């Protein structure tokens, strides 16, 4: 009988153990969440994609109605409103609650707006070429891929093509966070009638590129002088004997480097794709990890305020004691912040200088109007280069 009792107890213990294990498994599922059904998740994504596509089409139809409401205009440039685009992108950033970053969502909406505007006619944008330059990347960032890029041979040519009406806008570099001002751009504003219509800030990652991808093969390096300056420390440490050959753009350097195994170029990742080059070093080689270049969008007219704007002016001063103080004091009196000041020879008389000044605000703001009116009484000449939206981060 004792043996019978033993065998009767074993099943009872097993039966008790099963519910305990089952309970632990259920608790674990509740804690970690049930694994979703993949087919159901994909079906929901497909449904959302249909809604997104439907809404984009609806937005494009409304954009076309905006064009009709403006009446028949001369060209695509007449439909473009940089202040409105800046307002839309700022609202995108303000609404964003994740999980996608502001940068990703701004890029998505920029492309939607670019495609909607191109229904009228694609904008023609001049930039420092050839294809694969950072200037081209700035064009894509600001105008989207539906705009038509025009690669040109020099910054001077970008100004000329916009002035002649062969390009609707141009994109030109104006300063780098580590190397300072691109002087040729500032000098063009001394005589050009063009206006600044926008700005673009672009993180610049410089790579060492070559046909073979082997650092031991490199005897000469092609790059724009700015790129050599931005990577000087790395080049001294790693390729001190390589010949450095300056060229008009990094993309031009990449175009030349593709012809020989002993040549390399310093350029961006897009140039590697365009010219079939390999990264010699997988990481960027610029000395400053936050290396950023600011570009200006140039056009033929001023635009209304966007609500967060910058004004650039050019001031020619009289050669007298306190002249610069007289130029700057009106802005202090009217509470206007000065973001930047740069002097350049005026090219009007020996030892005379012009000052490029960036100010917070728009020329239509009352404080700015009063400050500029005061300034004109002290300066030899004041030229408003543009009032434009501050770059959307």
From TrEMBL:
<dbReference type="InterPro" id="IPR045865">
    <property type="entry name" value="ACT-like_dom_sf"/>
</dbReference>
<keyword id="KW-0028">Amino-acid biosynthesis</keyword>
<keyword id="KW-0584">Phenylalanine biosynthesis</keyword>
<dbReference type="GO" id="GO:0005737">
    <property type="term" value="C:cytoplasm"/>
</dbReference>
<dbReference type="Pfam" id="PF00800">
    <property type="entry name" value="PDT"/>
</dbReference>
<dbReference type="GO" id="GO:0009094">
    <property type="term" value="P:L-phenylalanine biosynthetic process"/>
</dbReference>
<feature type="domain" description="Chorismate mutase">
    <location>
        <begin position="32"/>
        <end position="124"/>
    </location>
</feature>
<keyword id="KW-0511">Multifunctional enzyme</keyword>
<dbReference type="Pfam" id="PF01842">
    <property type="entry name" value="ACT"/>
</dbReference>
<feature type="domain" description="ACT">
    <location>
        <begin position="312"/>
        <end position="389"/>
    </location>
</feature>
<feature type="compositionally biased region" description="Low complexity">
    <location>
        <begin position="17"/>
        <end position="26"/>
    </location>
</feature>
<dbReference type="InterPro" id="IPR036263">
    <property type="entry name" value="Chorismate_II_sf"/>
</dbReference>
<comment type="pathway">
    <text>Metabolic intermediate biosynthesis; prephenate biosynthesis; prephenate from chorismate: step 1/1.</text>
</comment>
<dbReference type="InterPro" id="IPR001086">
    <property type="entry name" value="Preph_deHydtase"/>
</dbReference>
<dbReference type="GO" id="GO:0004664">
    <property type="term" value="F:prephenate dehydratase activity"/>
</dbReference>
<dbReference type="InterPro" id="IPR036979">
    <property type="entry name" value="CM_dom_sf"/>
</dbReference>
<keyword id="KW-0963">Cytoplasm</keyword>
<comment type="pathway">
    <text>Amino-acid biosynthesis; L-phenylalanine biosynthesis; phenylpyruvate from prephenate: step 1/1.</text>
</comment>
<dbReference type="GO" id="GO:0046417">
    <property type="term" value="P:chorismate metabolic process"/>
</dbReference>
<keyword id="KW-0175">Coiled coil</keyword>
<feature type="coiled-coil region">
    <location>
        <begin position="38"/>
        <end position="65"/>
    </location>
</feature>
<dbReference type="InterPro" id="IPR008242">
    <property type="entry name" value="Chor_mutase/pphenate_deHydtase"/>
</dbReference>
<dbReference type="Pfam" id="PF01817">
    <property type="entry name" value="CM_2"/>
</dbReference>
<keyword id="KW-0456">Lyase</keyword>
<dbReference type="GO" id="GO:0004106">
    <property type="term" value="F:chorismate mutase activity"/>
</dbReference>
<comment type="function">
    <text>Catalyzes the Claisen rearrangement of chorismate to prephenate and the decarboxylation/dehydration of prephenate to phenylpyruvate.</text>
</comment>
<feature type="domain" description="Prephenate dehydratase">
    <location>
        <begin position="124"/>
        <end position="300"/>
    </location>
</feature>
<dbReference type="InterPro" id="IPR002701">
    <property type="entry name" value="CM_II_prokaryot"/>
</dbReference>
<protein>
    <recommendedName>
        <fullName>Bifunctional chorismate mutase/prephenate dehydratase</fullName>
        <ecNumber>4.2.1.51</ecNumber>
        <ecNumber>5.4.99.5</ecNumber>
    </recommendedName>
</protein>
<feature type="site" description="Essential for prephenate dehydratase activity">
    <location>
        <position position="293"/>
    </location>
</feature>
<dbReference type="InterPro" id="IPR002912">
    <property type="entry name" value="ACT_dom"/>
</dbReference>
<keyword id="KW-0057">Aromatic amino acid biosynthesis</keyword>
<dbReference type="InterPro" id="IPR010957">
    <property type="entry name" value="G/b/e-P-prot_chorismate_mutase"/>
</dbReference>
<feature type="region of interest" description="Disordered">
    <location>
        <begin position="1"/>
        <end position="35"/>
    </location>
</feature>
<keyword id="KW-0413">Isomerase</keyword>
<feature type="compositionally biased region" description="Basic residues">
    <location>
        <begin position="1"/>
        <end position="16"/>
    </location>
</feature>
